[in-house]
Amino acid sequence: MKKIVITGGHLTPALAVVEALANKKEYKIIFFGRKIATDGSDSVSAEFREIGKRNITFVDIVSGRLTRKFTKYSIPSLLKIPLGVLMSFLYLAKYRPSLVVSFGGYLSTPVVFCAWLLGIDCLTHEQAVVPGFANRLNSLFVKKIFLSWEQTKNYFPKEKYQVIGTPQPQSLLEKSAGEKKVKAILERIGDMVVVAGGSQGSHIINNLVFENLDLFARNLVFHQIGTANYKNDHAKAAKIRKNNYFAIDYVSPEDIGAVFSRAKFVISRSGANTVWDLAMLAKPAILIPLAIAAGDEQTKNAQILETAGSAIILSQNSLSRASLKEAIKKMEDNLSEFEKSARAFQKTLPQNSTEKLVQYIYQIL
Asked: What does the buried/exposed string (b/e) look like for 259-297 if buried means 16 or more CB atoms within 10 Å of the residue's CB?
């Protein structure tokens, strides 16, 4: 039996590959990830939740990173980088996989580097338009770099990359959610706006919604507040008593397609996977890029949908009640045009991304 280690911070495409390989008896999947969502949090990570459901070995790697702004966690995080390298080396030496498949993020770099030291083949997938620092480093040690967007290819050697799109679980196209609480919200009657800040959540977006719920009076609000619970956002959401407001901390990758499909439009960050999901589902959106994202990658991601005519971008630095109100009005007044543009762009996207990546895995093993 051949062992494959899957690692990285972008969970949705990782799960797509896990699903594709899980039923193959000749392969054993081992997931290297983080158990805790983020520094200072006691919430478990999305990858720990999801991998735990699938009866797959989960290896908790504790590592650090270069933080985008200085906080009380910055120095402790830096000091954990050597620990991440040591743990990666020891666990790779223990399991001796035939291949490491990375999906970027700070945790993937010590795993990929140590695999290279041990002579283990690696490949990586980059979801963002502008590659993150981790995958730029990873590219030095991998055999192949798979890309979601044509715009990313200039960052890597021509002989190494292949544009395939982003692997997605089959559940992305499901119209019905599996989790009972999510399903119950989606079955409510009325137009729905979905607000999402990613698996960990966005305190800035959460607070914007908490303070301006009256702007959504004509719609149901499905608010995914995230697992991090920054500044007690969970308690704030729980105190809201409005018939049109529904908060949930986490939406699994299996249900995100049903959630986005139900939405009239989406308000969210513009992380790589979110932008791909919106494009694949032809869903109009108001996007608020993370201001401190490395290389301003979230703005670059959002600009793909803005250029396609399916999204409005709001700058976090000038975010206000007035700017949100204006964006919502523009979206609702021109919704049919945004939907038409989204459908047209959907038809241009690469297809069968998961199959292409998995076929390459079969070829090299």
From this structure: bbbbbbbbbbbbbbbbbbbbbbbbbbbbbbbbeebbeeb
pLDDT digits (tens, 9 = 90+) for 78-127: 777 899 999 999 999 999 999 999 999 899 999 999 999 999 999 999 99
CA separation, residue 364 to residues 2, 143, 204, 357 (Å): 12, 10, 44, 11
Which contiguous run of DSSP H or E holds residue 18? helix 11-22
CB 181 within 8 A of CB 252: no
For residue 171, pLDDT beyond 90? no
Torsion from C-alpha of 189, 193, 198, 202, nearest 10 degrees: -120
For 259-294, the pLDDT digits (tens) are 999 999 999 999 999 999 999 999 999 999 988 766
Domain 2-165+351-364 and domain 171-346, same fold? Reply is yes
**Pair 298, 289: CB distance under 8 Å:** yes
Give the gyration radius of the chain's Cα atoms: 20
- Look at residues 157, 163, 119, 118 and name the one whose alpha carbon lies nearest to residue 140: 157
User: According to CATH, what is the number of the domain 2-165+351-364?
Assistant: 3.40.50.2000
**Lateral strand order in the sheet of 161-163:** 57-60, 27-33, 2-7, 99-102, 121-126, 144-147, 161-163
- Report residue 63's pLDDT band, with 50, 70 and 90 as the boundaries: confident
Question: What six digits make up the tokens of 86?
Answer: 């040591």
Structurally, what CATH architecture does the domain formed by 171-346 represent?
3-Layer(aba) Sandwich (3.40)
Integer angstrom CA distances of residue 354 from 16, 263, 272: 7, 25, 16
Contacts of 135 (CB under 8 A, 6+ apart): 102, 104, 108, 124, 126, 145
* Strands of the sheet with 265-268, listed across from one edge: 245-248, 220-224, 192-196, 265-268, 285-287, 311-313
| Mean pLDDT, the chain, whole residue set | 91
Look up residue 197 and give its amino acid: G
Q: Regarding beta strands 220-224 and 285-287, do their DSSP bridges make them parallel or antiparallel, or are they unpaired?
A: unpaired
Asked if residues 284 and 338 have their Cβ atoms less than 8 Å apart, the reply is: yes
- The structural domains of the chain, with segments of one domain joined by +, span 2-165+351-364, 171-346
For residues 53, 57, 63, 65, the Cα torsion angle rounded to the nearest 10 degrees is: -50
